[in-house]
Every structure is written in C-alpha cells, then in structure tokens.
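Record type: ASSEMBLY
Status: queued
Input:
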Amino acid sequence: MRYSGFRLIKEALTGHTGWTPVWRDASPQPRYDIVIIGGGGHGLATAYYLAKEFGQKRVAVLEKAWVGGGNVGRNTTIIRSNYLLDGNEPFYEFSLKLWEGLEQDLNYNAMISQRGILNLIHSDAQRDAFIRRGNAMILNGADAELLSVAQIRARYPFLNFDNARFPIKGGLAQHRAGTARHDAVAWGYARGADSCGVDIIQNCEVTGFRIEDGQCRGVETTRGFIAADKVGCAVAGSSGRLMAKAEMRLPIESHVLQAFVSEGLKPVMPGVITFGAGHFYCSQSDKGGLVFGGDIDGYNSYAQRGNLDMVEDVCEAGMALMPALGRARLLRMWGGIVDMSMDGSPIIDRTHIDGLYFNGGWCYGGFKATPASGYAFAHLLATDSPHPTAAAYRFDRFEKGRMIDERGAGAQPNLH
Amino acid sequence: MIINHPLLGPRDAVEFTYLGDASLIDRPDWQADSAAQDFYSYLYLRDNPAGEHRELWFHEAGDRSWLVVTRNTVTHEITRVEMAQDVARARGRGI
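Status: finished
Output:
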C-alpha cells in the first residue's frame, strides 16, 4: 500500500478500515542467498538496499525479539555529518544525503527535521579545532558555518553565555543536520524491505553459525537451521557475544549509554546543541520533551540500564550550559548497549571466514549512520568490495596502524 | 555500584576509574618472535563477555590502588574484589 494525502483522506472517510499491516510476519525459508542478523536500523536498511539497489531477491532479516527494539529505538535521534577525519566525513556526508531523500525513497514519514546542530565553543583552542573541522566538512561537500556569540544569542538566549569557567565563545553550526523519528526509520526500512520481497523474521534468535572448511554455510536459530550463501551481522551492542559463536574476538567492548527526556515543554530549543566543555547534547522532540544525553557509563555492560552517577554527571553538564533545565522534571531515562570500538569508528568488512560479514563498532553514534551503513553493507555483501565511502572501516586497521580516531583517545573504548 | 575494597571496605564506584578486561595484566613478552601479533591481540581484541567479567578498576579518588573486580556485565552484580598486585603476583608478574 502506497501512502499519500489522498489515501489518508479516503481512509478518514471510510473509518480507517483499509489500512493493512506495514510488513508481513514472515516464517523462515530453509535457504536464502543472504541472511542479515539483526532487525535494527542498520540490518533493515541493509536488507532494503540489497533488494532495491543491488537486485538481491532472496534476502532475510533475522531478529531475536521484535523489529526496532534495540538501539534504533533508544537513541537521541540526531542526524549530522560533522566529522573531521578522511575515513569518516565522506561516509557520514553520504549518510546525511541519504537522510535527505529517505522519506520520498521509502514513501514513509520518518519526521526528518533539518533543524541544525550547533557545537558550542568555550576556548580559543577549541575555536581553532572547530574551524579546522568545519573546513574539513566543507572540503567533503558538507555544510558548516562558524557562528558568533551574537548569532547564538539570537537563537538560544537562555544559554549560560557568561559561565565563569566555560563562557560561550562561538559555535560551529551544521544547518543540514537535525533529528528524525527513530522508530519510524526502523519501520520505514522494514516496510520498504518487505515490499521488495525481503523476509523479516522476528522472534528468531541466532544460536550459532554453521562453518565448514572456513566457509559459513548458514545460521542455527531458535527456529531451525537457515542456509545462506552469505551472512551479514549487524547487531550493535551484541556484536561481541554473536561473533563469539564464530570464535571471533573483536576490537570492541559493549558499554551502556543512557539517554534522558524531560516532561513536555513549549517550544524552546529550535535545533540540536552540544556543550563543548563537557559531554552534553540536547534537542527538543516534537512532543515537547527535551531529549538529552552525555557520556557512556564507562564500564562493560549488557544491562540496558546505567547507574545514577552518570545521571548526575549529565544533569550537571546540562545545568552548566542551560540553567533553566533545572526547572524541568526528568520524565524518563533509559540505557542502550553500544559497541565501543578501539578507535571510536565502525567496522564494515568481511571476516576471515568466507561468507561471513560484519557491521558494527558504531559506538554511541550509529543512528545517524543508518542509511549509509545499510547502503555500504549491502554494497559489500552484494559485490564483495567495500563501498568507496566505507573503505577505511576495515578489521585490519588496528593491526596495520590505520586507526580512525576522532577523539585521539587511543585503544581505550570507554574514552571514545 | 558499590565496590567492596579489600583494604577500605565498601566504596562507591564513582571513586574509581575503569580500565577494562583484567587480561591487560598479562602483558606479552616484547622479545618473543610473535610479539607484534601478541601485542595486537593484547591491545585491541577483547572477549567482551555477557556475564562474569574480570576487570581492572583504579581507586583514583581513594588509595590509588588497582583492583581486579569480578562483576556480572548483565546484572552489574559484583561477586569478588581482589588487589590487582596480588592477582599479578599470583600470575608470576613482577611489581
């Protein structure tokens, strides 16, 4: 069913009885050409692009619970392409361009809102670094603008500009950045993939890989063995325990990242802002809640919940930047398990096992990458060669010394 | 989380900083023929288990000792806390 204004009016006049399920509840077939493990944003996007752009007809997505129940439903919904390094910026800009056409492509309202992101500057050294980053963005075809304090005051008058320790000295804006309705991204990709013939199989957990003579022949699941020529893994925070079933150790630790939303408020926050003197970022949802977050808790976790000291830390940073935040009540907070890599950048690559492919290590920034991650992973699975924008996301970059370390923190996952 | 420090008793985890898997105690021999591969595995690859995990915590806001904490990564339950120097000595590492 194609969605349109006409369809909406017709359904409104006929009691909304004509809407059909957005995707089929498929049962597993004994064999597929390509099986994607993980029915999150990246897995569903991979399946969608495999079917639509690369002509793959026999594709399945296996999800252990329900579609979109992991990090794609737990993030703070920010999309942007404001990276510095060559290995990253072309990829994230490719992603942002896909975001810009996504709703028309999918015929699905993902509520993409290019309301802009503003990275605040608090010192002269930070201004130099942000100018450099802005120039790198422009060189890679993205947009960036250095804003003065007066320009920021006009948009965000409530920020604490004259904080004695962290005065605001300016900001780097990317106007094409913004937010998207995160669940709708998963649902839109699921619907798009399903309409291209992809089987989306929920409540189907992978329990092992069938590997013979260095070749992956398929996956063992809670719903039986499924044969496949190629298997792609896109399971984010569960990457470590999934790939352990193929006896692989990854350059990844799983950590918990918390996110927060306040009670609904009248419109106050026109775009996305980030605090440059601590780790704090904030936007306002269309329902009015201030959506914000900060650092990961910092210790290995698979618990999908964090500890109170990080709640205090994030709220302290928020109060330092925008004291009015203290008058708002915290409505909800939750945790997601993120796959923190050793250099803070992702991996989209073949493994040493033929027919087994890996997509992971997205750290706490996977949501904005969803379209390009899916596209690049589909490219790799279909053609056995990396997509040009994702060519640096190799497994062997750690061994070869070709790290993509935006933060410059070294092999310490909880610092990225 | 409360870490039951062997010398100081129960302490709030915010007093500590986290390094990672306690296998980092087992620094490879830099003179071995396989040193390059050994250090790659040591520095970059992790077991990353869901369940019991032995890990290094540093009591930065306390007595500045290193601890080996055995903690469940699914429940955050801490079942054992040892002085890292005792663990290292037991594994034949010098101080």
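Annotation: The longest strand of chain A covers residues 252-264.
Annotation: The two ends of chain A are 43 Å apart (CA to CA).
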